[in-house]
Structure formats: structure tokens, C-alpha cells
Design goal:
Order of helices and strands: HHHEEEEEEHHEEHEEEE
Radius of gyration: 20 Å
Number of helices: 6
Helix content: 10-25%
Strand order of the largest sheet: 7-8-9-10-11-1-2-3-4-5-6-12
Strand content: 35-45%
Number of strands: 12
Shape: globular
CATH architecture: Clam
Length: 268
């Protein structure tokens, strides 16, 4: 796990921290369970289910993740992009660059992270360049591959219907609109189950648009409006989070930088 600690008292950095809880909440959307709605098109869910399974066939790709959020009327943007190659019996190759913008300040290449030959390299704004073995950074000597079988990526469409208000398909474009009342009910149950007494997330809007390419999920865009209440503090959040995956199984080489000026250090 990499902790970004540079200038952590800046206004922009504080704004980034406000988004953390939001990012962590998205995993819940893909693990929920089951009932139908009159505006839910089964063909749309069939295509979505098939595209999720296709992830098991991805061995290399170019990726980009973008977050454009307004938190308490202040805008913050994060862009994460790069390439990866995962081949059977060969170490993982990964490049990742993080750009960020908050409070009117934009920093390109705020962080660059690379994985090559079982070594992790991190560059913070060209001010700090460190390298460490994967064993020290992640507790594993090697990441030989990221190959998953079909069971790794499962999405039962019947398990998703309970939380959908609408689902439609037009060609390769899927549109999903979630029932925020049911999402909020489930979030409340999970909060109580985990004994979280000082936080309350409430969605006002939650939609997802998916674009397919040869049955692969090429792009997914989540649009949301929500409030996050912690104790007496209430935050208004709205914006979009998108993931784009291109050049699937076509990336054969990653253009890594020269690592000669990276020094041994601890990346945690």
C-alpha cells in the first residue's frame, strides 16, 4: 500500500482525503442481492454479466480511471492511468501515473508508480524517487501474474435487480439507474452490522453507463449525488467516476523510465 504523504496539510490534499470514503463505497454496488423491476431489461443485465466474466481473459491493457467530484462546493479531480502486462509464469509489469487537481491547483504526475522485475519504483513529483522489493513493499516476493479464472468475476443478474430502478441497452451502450432508497437501506444495515455509529452515507442519485467493445467492458461511468455524515459534520458530494480499459490484450511492451537515480527506500 502506498501512502501519499507529501504536503499533507495542503488544502488540496485535505480535499483528496474527503473522497476516500466515497471510493471505498463503490465495491458495495457489485455485491448486492435480488428482485425484479418493470423497467429492468434482462438483455442489458445479460450483456453486463457477460462483460464482467470477460475480465478473466484480460492479460494486458491500457487503463484510465478518472474522478471528478465536488465536495462541499469545492471541486477535486483525480486521474489515474497507465498500462499493465500479466503473463503466466512471468512477473507483473505495471505503470501507473496519478494527476490531481483541487482548490484551483493542478499537479500533473503527482505520483508515478512502476512494477518491474519484482521491484516497485515510486516517483513523487520528481522530488523523491525510491525503489523497494515487492517482498518489502507488499509482503510477497513476487507477483507472477494476475490471471483469474471465470469464477473470479461473477455477477449474478438476479442478484442485482433488487437494487435497480432501470436498466436498458442500445447496441453496445448499457444504462443502469439504481434505486437509491434500497441502496441506502442496505448501506444502513451494513453500517449497523459493522458497528459504525458516527458515519452515515446517503445516496440521492446513482447511475452507471457502460460501453462494450467485443463484449469487453471498455468504459464504465458512475454518476452520483450523495451526502456523507460523520458525527455533526455533513458533506455534500456529487460528480462522476469513470474507468476506461483500452488495447485489451494488445499491450506487448511498457516504456519504463530509467531507474538508475532511484534509491533504496521504504514504500508503505
Amino acid at each position: 500500500m502506498v501512502l501519499l504523504t507529501y504536503n499533507k496539510n495542503s488544502k488540496g490534499e485535505k480535499q483528496m482525503k474527503k473522497l476516500t470514503a466515497l471510493v471505498l463505497s463503490f465495491g458495495m454496488l457489485f455485491s448486492m442481492a435480488a428482485c425484479s423491476g418493470s423497467k429492468v431489461n434482462d438483455d442489458a443485465l445479460d450483456k453486463l454479466e457477460a462483460s464482467v466474466k470477460k475480465f478473466s481473459e484480460v492479460k494486458s491493457a491500457n487503463y484510465s480511471a478518472d474522478m471528478d467530484m465536488t465536495v462541499d462546493k469545492e471541486n477535486a479531480k483525480i486521474k489515474l492511468y497507465g498500462d499493465f502486462i500479466t503473463e503466466t509464469k512471468k512477473p507483473l509489469q505495471l505503470s501507473m501515473t496519478l494527476d490531481m487537481e483541487a482548490s484551483g491547483q493542478k499537479v500533473d504526475k503527482y505520483m508515478q508508480l512502476h512494477v518491474k522485475d519484482d521491484t516497485m519504483y515510486m516517483n513523487m513529483m520528481d522530488m523523491m524517487k525510491q525503489k523497494t522489493s515487492l517482498k518489502d513493499a507488499m509482503g510477497t516476493a513476487s507477483i507472477p501474474n494476475m490471471n483469474f479464472d471465470a469464477d473470479t468475476f461473477k455477477m449474478n443478474k438476479e442478484d442485482m435487480k433488487k437494487y435497480l430502478k432501470e436498466a436498458s441497452v442500445k447496441g453496445n451502450d448499457l444504462k443502469l439507474s439504481f434505486d437509491v432508497e434500497k441502496i441506502n437501506e442496505e448501506a444502513k444495515k451494513q453500517t449497523e452490522k459493522n458497528n459504525v455509529t458516527d458515519a452515515n452515507v446517503e445516496f440521492k442519485k446513482l447511475d452507471m453507463d457502460v460501453t462494450l467493445n467485443n463484449d469487453f467492458m471498455e468504459k464504465a461511468v458512475i454518476t452520483l449525488e450523495m451526502t456523507n455524515t460523520k458525527g455533526e459534520t455533513k458533506q455534500e458530494l456529487n460528480g462522476t467516476v469513470s474507468l476506461t480499459i483500452k488495447d485489451i490484450n494488445k499491450v506487448s511492451n511498457i516504456d519504463f523510465p530509467n531507474f538508475k537515480d532511484y534509491t533504496e527506500g521504504s514504500i508503505q
